[in-house]
Amino acid sequence: MCKRGSWVIYLLPALLSSFSIALILRWVERRDLPRLVVIASNYATATFVAMGGPSRRSIAMPPDALFAGMGLGVMFLVGFMVFGLALRREGMAPAVTMGRISLIIPVLVAVAVFGESPSAIDVTALVLIIVVLWSWEGGKKRIAPVLLVLFALFGCISAMLKWFAVVHPHVPESRFLTVVFGAALVGGCIVVAVRRQRLSGFAVGIGFALGIPNYYSSFFLVKALEKMPAFVVFPVVDTGVIVLFALAGTFCFSERLGKRRLVSVTLAMVALILLGISR
């Protein structure tokens, strides 16, 4: 179903781009920058890059792809805003964990709607990954409503990207993402204006920088979904981000990994290896 080279060509850039987004957002939280300004300006760069992206085929975008892109752009913006709300109310760890566990939604959609068939090894790896993600912060007996909304939003966004990759493989990714990020940019500017957010040149600059990995994260994710099944793409990217984030915290921010997280990282690496050998 997929070539081994796809792991390096598509999955690795998608993983590293997502990891860069996580690092920048963490830094933004530490500096207490105006989050909405950063988010809105990030979409300006993402839209600009998408408009200049490669487009080998000059074809008109089908109406369903156009409206789906606009809707997805709004979901991107709302997802970022809900993520910020979850950070303030529930903390970093629960918000990040629920966002990553949302991979369940696109995987189920891919299996139920698009007929993907995971092997026994794939299922074992997926179970390991869910265990790792849920136990990363010890799990929660009670899940706050904002976390459930975050779970649903992130899952639906991923499922929509899978839909586009399957239904419109001949529509250039850059053209579709221009619509997605353009809609998010318009919505973000409206929210900033309505809420009268304080504009900061520094925050805008950080947002511009964030837009580059944000675009390429989506671009390579869609490319990977065109070549590989969703039950491989989303677990590899989501789990890989958490593993890299943990390692970065240990070696770059002098944070202790702890025994539980060390076990979780080990299990995550085992799951990634299983997904790799099953290909």
How do the strands and helices of this protein lay out in sequence?
Elements: H1 5-31, H2 35-51, H3 63-90, H4 92-101, H5 104-112, H6 120-135, H7 145-167, H8 173-194, H9 201-227, H10 230-251, H11 259-277
Helix pairs in contact: 1-9, 1-10, 2-3, 2-8, 2-9, 3-4, 3-7, 3-8, 4-7, 5-7, 6-10, 6-11, 7-9, 8-9, 10-11
What does this structure look like?
The chain is about 80% helix and about 0% strand. It is built from eleven helices and no strands. The chain has helices at about 5-30, 35-50, 65-90, 90-100, 105-110, 120-135, 145-165, 175-195, 200-225, 230-250, 260-275. The relative contact order is 0.22.
Features:
single chain; 279 residues; mainly alpha; 11 helices; 79% helix; globular
Q: What is the compact description of this entry?
A:
The chain has 279 residues and is mostly helical. It has helices at residues 5-31, 35-51, 63-90, 92-101, 104-112, 120-135, 145-167, 173-194, 201-227, 230-251, 259-277.
